[in-house]
Amino acid sequence: MSTTINGRDLLLRAVRNETTERAAWMPFVGCHGAALLGVSAADSLKSAPLQVQGLLKARELYRPDGLPVCFDLQIEAEALGCRLHWASDAPPAVSTHPLAEGVALEDLPPLVEQAGRIPVVLDVLRQLKSRIGHEVALYGLVCGPFTLALHLLGNDIFLKMFDDPEGVKRIIRYCAEIANRMADWYLRDGADVIAVVDPMTSQISPEHFEAFVSEPVNLVFDHIRRRQGLSALFVCGDVTRNLEVMCRTRADSIHVDEQIDMVVLRRLAEQHGKAFGGNIKLTVVLLLGTPDDARREALGLLDTCGTRGFILSPGCDLPYGVPPANLQAVAEMVHDPYQRDVARSTQAAAGADAVQDVVLPDYQAANGVVIDVITLDSTSCAPCQYMMEAVNQAARKTRIRCYINEHKIKAREGIGMMMKLGVKSLPTICIDGEIRFISIIPDQNTLVAAIEAAARGKATAQTEPHT
Fold first, then answer.
1. How far from each other are the two terminal CA atoms of the chain, in whole angstroms?
2. Which pTM was predicted?
3. End of a domain among 313, 328, 346?
4. Last residue of some domain: 320, 346, 372?
5. Which of 8, 122, 249, 290 is the residue whose CA sits 20 to 30 A from 179?
6. In sequence order, what DSSP letters do the residues of 22-58 get, joined into one string?
7. Three-state secondary structure call for residue 312
8. Which tens digit of pLDDT belongs to each residue from 48-64?
9. Using 50, 70 and 90 to split pLDDT, how confident is the model at 351?
């Protein structure tokens, strides 16, 4: 039997860290809404009518308590002068970084309501608010200050954090002001929750988080609270080391992805009076799994996380091609207590078979250094994108022949490589079959040195320019 609870009210109570009749359910439908309509992600993310249709279809199929207005972390960057690379089945990726190309911070174009696709997103919000806003909580997603700073400056930000810390702090404070402006427009037009999505903070230490991120991001959360809004800090990637400092921010809720132990997050959230959300596996379960896999995953999280301040959600933006039946299976676990009891009684954990068909290369026999980068997908995951950029830049700087392979765990081959190599966190760089950099982007000198050290250990490595 399905419940008749008002989903919007339930989700907002959860974000306020109250105990609710059941866990709140928040599928992060972004480009997946385009798949439901049979159109490309690029076409949908440029069109208010298509985005509205996709979200309404998701509401019909998945019975959510909340929906994002638009899951695209490049909206602000595009409006500020970054060029984008568009894809048919993923959000766009930032391809240029104005501050790294000589543009001064004060010379960036002003962020105005008419810039870029901001009018499109606000139109989506207004339409959703009038049609389903009394029953479904609407999340306005803003690009977090650190991630937006990286979009503007590129990978140079990591070196400049040591060489010019005050300059980096100035850029991040500017990006926090941009987040406040976006939050103002979202709240004005009816958003219930403002999620500050800052995935690139997964690439820095707790000490750097506190030194560079805590103050500006708290200014955003304080601003949202003054406007009577609720807030979330949403970080994709392995942020295990940063969970404590994230929970010390003044966000109302913390959202994480599948790499995080929800027992640990629940304990920290309770200590700090926070709501928390996550963390259904995006690829192994939702994209490549079966409805039974989705039921098992959802049930495990529901039983682990309880009903105080918990929002069940995928770990990030839903992949374009997730089978609707898998998300409907999650919704069944959320809404139907009888089916939850049936699932507990009858379902056994499924084994992963993706590894069986994958054979690792003979790294020692390779005529050069083999670099395997295990990612979610560098076209849609910001930490993955910037890790791939770092690897390609380092390969161009060394005279060692490099073979670079990206293994996306959106495909079974990627999952198999991840398991065979023993990778546990994303993104990760492996060099000649050895895990070297786990969920952190190394600086160029460190990465070049690691490549050259691997080459010295191989008699067959060639010293010639990378092509």
1. 60
2. 0.84
3. 346
4. 346
5. 8
6. S-EE----STHHHHHHT--HHHHHT-HHHHHHHHHHH
7. strand
8. 999 999 999 999 999 99
9. very low
Q: Which residues pair with 277 in a beta bridge?
A: 255, 311
Residue-number span of the structural domain to which 198 is assigned: 7-346
pLDDT tens, position by position, 307-341: 999 999 998 999 999 999 999 999 999 999 888 87
Output the CA–CA distances (angstroms, integers) from residue 298 to 24, 289, 295, 334, 358, in the order listed: 12, 13, 5, 8, 28
Residue 1 belongs to a domain: no
Residue 466 burial (CB count, 10 A) = 18
Same domain for 315 and 373, yes or no, is no
Asked if residue 62 and residue 119 are part of one domain, the reply reads yes
The sign of the torsion formed by the CA atoms of 303, 235, 193, 136 equals negative
Token pair 């682990």 is found at 304
CATH of the domain at 49: 3.20.20.210
Cα within 13 Å of Cα(28), Cβ side = 29
Query: Are 56 and 131 contacting, i.e. CB atoms less than 8 angstroms apart?
Result: yes
Same domain as 377, residue 302: no
State whether 128 and 200 are in the same domain. yes
> How many domains would you assign to the chain?
2
Residue 205 inside a domain? The answer is yes
Question: Cβ(32)–Cβ(6) under 8 Å?
Answer: no
Q: What is the CATH number of the domain that holds 363?
A: 3.40.30.10
Paired sense of beta strands 428-431 and 369-375, if any = antiparallel
Spatial contact of 23 and 305, defined as CB atoms under 8 Å apart = yes
Q: Inter-axis angle of helices 382-397 and 145-153, to 10 degrees?
A: 30
